[in-house]
Amino acid sequence: MQNVLGDRAPVMADVARVAGVSQQTVSRVLNDRPNVRPATRERVMEAIRELGYRPNAAARTLVTRRTHTLGVISFNTTLYGPASMLYGIEQAAKQHDYFVTVAALAAMDRRSVFDAVERLRDQAVEGIIVIAPQTTAVSALANMPSDVPLVAVGCGVHAALRAVAVDNEAGAERATSYLLDLGHRTVHHLAGPRTWLDAQEREAGWRRALTARGAEVPEPVKGGDWSARTGYDLGRQIVRDEAVTSVFCANDHLALGLMRALQAAGRRVPEHVSVIGFDDIPDAEFFGPALTTVRQDFDELGRRALLALIRSIGTGPGGRRAAGPAGAIDPSLVVRASTARPAS
């Protein structure tokens, strides 16, 4: 076939000639139209494979008015949660034959989010997923243009947006209840940054579990970021109170820092203090001791976000205006060696 074509790339007419069909039939096969006989479809596909033909994406877009491209807006971070959300979305998009173009922002303020939406609209994306774990991001999305379908991810279950989220409150409540079931009289909380919706919901779940059981609700320890350094610095406040026997941390890195602070103070985990994290980062099972934590299913989060966006695309302009979560994912508790019954 190379001798017939010379050095030029194959075009649709070549596929039609080899398959013995019209160019219109080839077009129908490429655009997955239903009115093509199975034997004819297979003959066209065989010709495509034989020639190494690759459809012109721009021309196909003009015919179908579909780009099969989705935009994702995230912020420039290496934090495990947002990075895993992005990976889950990309994997789900690949499985559904969508391309993804990512706009990573230094800040999730209204102007930055609006500019990112405009850039993605200029690239003719069919819809946009926004990873929006901070209060500023949710506020920024409230007045975005409505002609492009949009789904938010990681913004909690209470945002007035079409959103897919992990049920942070349920996960925190489950972790706290587990410590109470072990016999701890109460559970202290090492909280995440106040502007993060994940941190707010995990604190709410912790508080709800204690209140439901009639346990004392200690003042949560707050300040800093999500890092192990913050966990260590704040943990030094916690270790001063020898009455503390269990701590629920808003993420695994905070738990790691707390465990280091406990070790430095001569307090063993879990003999003296039980510790639970949130996220189940890949290193959690290799902490010393292995960390009990709440696991989030980021693959499922990406799948649901993509399906919610595809449904929004099908509703046409304004489809994203439907408020409330398109799906809340229930996280699971992974029990390891960092938790135990309190010492008598």
In a nutshell, what does this entry contain?
By secondary structure, this protein is of the alpha/beta class. It has 3 domains: 2-64, Orthogonal Bundle (434 Repressor (Amino-terminal Domain)); 69-166 and 298-329, Rossmann fold; 168-296, 3-Layer(aba) Sandwich (Rossmann fold). Helix content is 44%, strand content 15%.
Radius of gyration: 26 Å
Shape: elongated
Number of domains in the coordinates?
3
**Portion in beta strands:** 15-25%
- Report how far the terminal alpha carbons are from each other: 82 Å
Write the CATH fold name of the largest domain.
Rossmann fold
- The beta-strand count equals 11
Order of helices and strands: HHHHHEHEHEHEEHEHHEHEEHEE
- Return the CATH class of the largest domain: Alpha Beta
Helix content: 40-55%
Q: Largest sheet, if any?
A: 6 strands, parallel
Arrangement of strands in the largest sheet: 2-1-3-4-5-10
Mean pLDDT level: 87
CATH architecture heading of the largest domain: 3-Layer(aba) Sandwich
Task: Name the CATH superfamily assignment of the largest domain.
Answer: Response regulator
Number of continuous helical runs: 13
Poorly predicted runs of 5 or more residues: 317-325
Structural class: alpha/beta
What does this structure look like?
The protein has 344 residues and is α/β, with parallel strands linked by helices. The chain has three domains: 2-64, lambda repressor-like DNA-binding domains (434 Repressor (Amino-terminal Domain)); 69-166 and 298-329, 3-Layer(aba) Sandwich (Rossmann fold); 168-296, Response regulator (Rossmann fold, 3-Layer(aba) Sandwich). It has 13 helices and eleven strands. The chain has helices spanning 2-5, 12-19, 23-30, 38-51, 57-64, 80-95, 110-122, 135-141, 168-181, 197-212, 228-238, 252-264, 298-315; strands at 69-75, 99-105, 127-131, 150-153, 163-166, 188-190, 246-249, 274-279, 292-295, 325-329, 332-334. The strands form two sheets. Strands 2-1-3-4-5-10 form a six-stranded parallel beta sheet, with helices on both faces. Strands 6-7-8-9-11 form a five-stranded mixed beta sheet, sandwiched between helices. Helix 7 (110-122) crosses helix 8 and helix 11 (228-238) crosses helix 12. The longest helix has 18 residues, at 298-315. The radius of gyration is 26 Å and the shape is elongated. Mean pLDDT is 87; it is low at 317-325.
